[in-house]
């Protein structure tokens, strides 16, 4: 592949990787990871609410990794309440999973920035053959993609398996019991999915630039050695 096309591919991958770092950082700071509605079952049972009357007992909830908001509906109008995970909910939620999600988000940002820098270095500099070169780009892209997948798996298990929304809704509630009525992942969660796909795409761009995947068996070692000598 001509050098100019290779530079263009590496620059494109570097920009995409940098955009992923910014997108992940923005996602961490928002409350748009989960949106849902919560039903005040105690109030609904007291008045035997059905049909349209049931909507008077359905509140809303949305939250991110650090804070959120819920609207408490128990038949007398909505009452918005703000909450934060640290330190209020640490004893209520699965703290180890939640902290792991935040940790992997931080790792994703770091390696997305590292990958972006090395993509630009490969485009305009003279990289070494190992971690600074294409093999390193495969490594940074793989780590970033893996972190994105782990974030989605861990957060999904926290929300769905450990019933995170119900635990938040029933925090410090003595008289009323709330159940999840509906629940869906919001924009920030899907941003992490997009970032994972972008890092996977970056690995394909490296292959498109003419560099074999790691651990693949070269067909002609002499030709590849000559190419490496010309590139580096």
What does this entry look like structurally?
Belongs to the clarin family. With 232 residues, the protein is α+β, with helices and mostly antiparallel strands. The chain has one domain (3-231). The protein is 56% helix and 15% strand. The chain is built from seven helices and five strands; from the N terminus they run H-E-H-E-E-E-H-H-H-E-H-H. The chain has helices at 3-28, 41-47, 95-124, 134-161, 164-169, 187-208, 221-231; strands spanning 34-40, 58-63, 67-73, 78-84, 178-185. Strands 4-3-2-1-5 form a five-stranded antiparallel beta sheet. Helix 1 (3-28) runs antiparallel to helix 6 and helix 3 runs antiparallel to helix 4. The chain is elongated. It starts with a helix and ends with a helix. The model is unreliable at 220-232 (pLDDT under 50).
N→C terminal distance = 15 Å
Give me the side-by-side strand order of the main sheet.
4-3-2-1-5
Radius of gyration: 24 Å
Strand content: 15-25%
Shape: elongated
Helix content: 55-70%
Average pLDDT for all residues:
85
Largest sheet: 5 strands, antiparallel
Model regions low in confidence, pLDDT < 50 over at least 5 residues: 220-232
The overall number of domains is 1
Structural class computed from helices and strand pairing: alpha+beta
Number of strands: 5
User: Total number of helical segments?
Assistant: 7
- N-to-C order of helices and strands: HEHEEEHHHEHH
